[in-house]
Amino acid sequence: MEEGMEPGTVRPGGRTARVRAAVLQAAGDALAEHGFDGLDLADVARRAEVGKTTVYRRWATTTGLVADLLDDMAEQSSPRTDTGSLDGDLLANARLVVKTLTDPRQGALFKAVIAAATCDPRAARALHRFYATRIEEWAPCVTQAAERGEVPPGTDAAEVIRAVSAPLYYRFLVSGDGLDEGAADRAAGAAGAAARAGAYGS
């Protein structure tokens, strides 16, 4: 590991990359099954068929492992859909969020990593990086909409993308209301209407 780097932040190739991939897959499975409180490095090592010493040396703590898992999720996330219209793009974004959160494994995994972020600064920083990456991926659809004249010039693209997903995460984490395509359609429609009305002027 390079001097000054935190455990779990190395991006090596070859065998080490294969070990990292196996451990992160195992960590995701364990989180989805047992939540953050049930995450155990020895169990992850067993699932990944990797020596415990390797896992403890490279990640050191469960929060270090969660942080690296979030970084990997950001790297592997689905590319942005480009439909050619703001409404179509925001709808694609909203439906992707709903699809992810309602997936049995992915939904449980997101709840676990969000729980980790509430109690550990390193996990919180990783979660913030994850969402910053997703917003950066999708914000160009708003910029392009401004260039086409669909929204006012100077519309804050990141705020529009946040406005799409925020009500969906509220349903997922707080209210317990259902998440389906109808919820996705309403979130995307409301964000698009507000953007056209100039609500997100920078």
TrEMBL record:
Keyword set, alphabetical order: DNA-binding, Transcription, Transcription regulation
Pfam family, one: TetR_N
UniProt key word tRNA-binding: no
Membrane-spanning intervals of the chain: none
DNA-binding segment(s): 40-59
Span of domain HTH tetR-type: 17-77
Protein name as it appears in the record: Transcriptional regulator
Species the sequence originates in: Streptomyces violascens
